[in-house]
Write a structure and sequence with these properties.
The protein is of the alpha/beta class and 419 residues long. Helix content is 32%, strand content 18%. It folds into two domains: 254 residues, Thiolase/Chalcone synthase (Peroxisomal Thiolase, Chain A, domain 1); 151 residues, Thiolase/Chalcone synthase (Peroxisomal Thiolase, Chain A, domain 1), CATH 3.40.47.10. The protein has 14 helices and 13 strands. Helix 1 crosses helix 14.
């Protein structure tokens, strides 16, 4: 089958709005958390979030939004977008430039786009409230396409004139990993030559705060302690938003264009827990199966894996479940790979997580480092025996796994190789 490579990346995240900033944050373990101003009310128990900097999109009127230079967006584009659509549009611009793509490369039948987001609860809530209070015809004509879960692919496919395959994915925190996995399938099956993979989330009050009702968010008031995957005192995740775009191309396209590559996308695997609508199987059986499926599909042995970017969100059940899955796959303690969770720096991006952390894996392979798992004071006994690195290692991994798990027990494992 054709080989598939990542040739372009774009980042709008809590730890940097371009690849250079993200690399620096990952190397130095610099987090993006703060005491989030909208949460500083006595009736809100959650205090910390990881917002994107440089953008102001709190208003429900897109004409009030501001974003950093050099990005410019016409009014007719903004009218159909959610805040995370703007993040994705900016990250898309970066990825196109990074991959060196021309307009002809982007807009043709051989180039597609798969995207993932949870939609915009902020804009949806505003539109519904306006509809009930003022009448149906007082709603924006583009309110639906700006707010429902397909808003990313609607807007990006239209504005970038994508003519190949397009689809939106909805599997909660596994969404953008599913998008990447199925984009890989499009390429190796010869249906497409190039695929954009996009993950994005608003990361604002309405996108994050409902998780407090699930008791899933950290209640820490110190940003340095709020997200600490694998630590025995972890108490929930920190919410974040932003967007990441990856450009995947076949080996033939890479050769034709003389394109640079970050890494090879070797393949992927998935499996379901079949256990609970909201929490992972306590023994990690579904994630274990997803990892084993990914290794089998790519012909990779457990001993060949150098680094695992773990899903580990800093929730008590989720992290220990993943630890058990990792121990079951990597049975020999002496040969276990380095493991870390970059959510200790970024927070949890929900459906953005898989694309964002796959981007981090690509950077780690090309730049030659493995980011540490920050903020661990006391390692959870359930994680003893795993090689959880607490500082950044200045070594290039040859084989990298990225794990994600979503609601309903959806588990995906992606495999990346040094090119």
């Amino acid at each position: 089958m054709p080989k598939v490579y990542i040739t372009g990346l774009g980042f709008i995240t809590s730890i940097g709005n371009d690849a250079a900033g993200v690399i620096e944050s990952l190397r130095e373990l610099r987090h993006g958390f703060e005491l989030y101003p909208p949460f500083q009310k006595p009736e809100i128990p959650v205090k910390v979030a990881a917002p994107v900097r440089g953008f102001s999109m709190e208003s429900t009127d897109a004409e009030d939004w501001t974003f950093p230079a050099p990005y410019r967006m016409r009014r007719e584009i903004l009218r159909g977008m959610a805040p995370h659509g703007v993040y994705a549009w900016c990250a898309m611009q970066q990825a196109v430039a990074d991959a060196g793509l021309s307009e002809a490369d982007i807009s043709n039948r051989d180039t597609g786009l798969y995207a993932a987001s949870g939609g915009s609860p902020h804009l949806m809530g505003h539109m519904l409230q306006r509809m009930h209070a003022q009448g149906v015809m007082k709603c924006s004509p583009l309110g639906i396409v700006a707010s429902i879960s397909g808003t990313l692919n609607f807007n990006l496919v239209a504005h970038f004139r994508i003519k190949g395959a397009s689809c939106g994915f909805s599997s909660a925190c596994a969404s953008s990993s599913h998008a990447l996995g199925f984009a890989y399938d499009e390429l190796v099956l010869g249906r497409q030559k190039r695929m954009f993979v996009v993950g994005a989330e608003d990361g604002n009050v309405d996108a994050i705060l409902p998780f407090a009702g699930m008791r899933a968010l950290s209640l820490q008031t110190d940003p340095d302690l709020a997200s600490r995957p694998f630590d025995s005192a972890r108490d929930g995740f920190v919410g974040t938003g932003g967007a990441v775009v990856l450009v995947l191309e076949t080996g033939d396209e890479v050769e034709r264009r003389g394109a640079k590559v970050y890494c090879e996308v070797a393949g992927w695997g998935q499996a379901s827990d079949g256990y609970n609508v909201a929490i992972s199987h306590p023994e990690g059986h579904g994630l274990q199966a997803a990892i084993e499926n990914a290794l089998r599909a790519t012909g990779t042995s457990a001993e060949e894996v150098d680094y695992v970017n773990a899903h580990a969100t800093s929730t008590p059940i989720g992290d220990s479940s993943e630890a058990k899955a990792l121990k079951a796959v990597f049975k020999t303690p002496a040969s276990r790979p380095a493991i870390s969770s970059t959510k200790a720096l970024t927070g949890h991006g929900l459906s953005l997580a898989g694309a964002m952390e796959s981007g981090f894996c690509a950077l780690a392979i090309r730049e030659g480092f493995m980011p540490g798992s920050a903020h661990i004071t006391t390692l959870d006994p359930a994680c003893e025996g795993l090689n959880i690195i607490r500082s950044t290692l200045p070594a290039r991994p040859n084989v990298v796994l990225n794990n994600v798990s979503g609601f309903g027990g959806a588990n995906v494992c992606l495999v990346f190789n040094k090119a």
